[in-house]
Amino acid sequence: MRCGHEALPVRQQGCxxxxxxxxxxxxxxxxxxxGSTIDPDINGMVLALDDIVRSRxxxxxxxxxxxxxxxxxxxxxVATDYDALVGLLEAExxxxxxxxxxxxxxxxxxxxxxxxxxxxxxxxxxxxxxxxQVIDIHSSAVYRIYMIGxxxxxxxxxxxxxxxxxxxxxxxxxxxxxxxxxxxxxxAGIAPMDMPSGWHNLGLTPVRPYAPxxxxxxxxxxxxxxxxxxxxxSRWEALEKAALAxxxxxxxxxx
Length: 255
What we know:
This protein is 22% helix and 31% strand. It has helices at residues 40-56, 82-92, 120-126, 131-140, 233-244; strands spanning 5-6, 10-12, 15-17, 21-24, 29-33, 61-66, 70-75, 105-112, 143-148, 155-158, 173-176, 180-184, 187-190, 195-197, 200-204, 225-230, 251-254.
C-alpha cells in the first residue's frame, strides 16, 4: 500500500491550483485534499472528482463523501486494488476542472425574527443594524451548498454577507427546531431536524432538507444553490402543514 503523498499540481485554465494530497484513511478509505480554504473552485474540483469516481465505480466502492475541500472514498479492502485506485485518482486529478454544471437553485421560504428567529435582534445589535436590515442582507445573497454533513441533510452554506458574519454563541443550545435558519462565523445552515447548535437563529423554514418518508429523502445536494424568501407567519403555517404532509415546499427555480 502506498503511503500518503502529493499528486502533481493540477492545471486549471492555464494556471496551477493547490496540489492535491492523496491520503490513506486506515485500510478502507482514501482522502483527496484539494486545498485548505472555502473556495467555490476547490469545491467544484471536489464535486467533479466525486462525479468521476461514482461513474467509474471501481471494484469494492462503498461510498464517496465530498466536503468543502476534499473527497473521501470508502471501499472494501478485500475487493479493491488500492494501488489501482490511487493510480486512477492521480490520473484524474492532473487536468481536473471544477464541475462546470451549476447545481439546482432553490427558493426557500423563511419567517424571520420573533419566536421563529430568537437571535435576530441580537445579531442586528452586534453589527449596528436593524432587524429588517439583517433580513434584507441575509435574503439577498445566493448561497452555495458546499457539503452535506454533521447530521443527515444538514446544509453547510457559503455566501453569507460579511456584514452579518457572527461568531458562534459562547453557550450552545441543547436543542433547536427542525427548519431553523442559522448563521455561525461566515457560514449559514438549515437544521434538518431538531438538533443542538451554537449558531445564531435568524428564522424558521417549513422546508425539511431530510425527510425519511419522502421521495426524495434528501432534498438538496452539494453544488446546489439556495436563495431565502421572507414570508409572514400565516404563510409559514400553511407551508408547514404542506411540509408535514410530505411536500418539498422549497421551489426549484433552476433545474
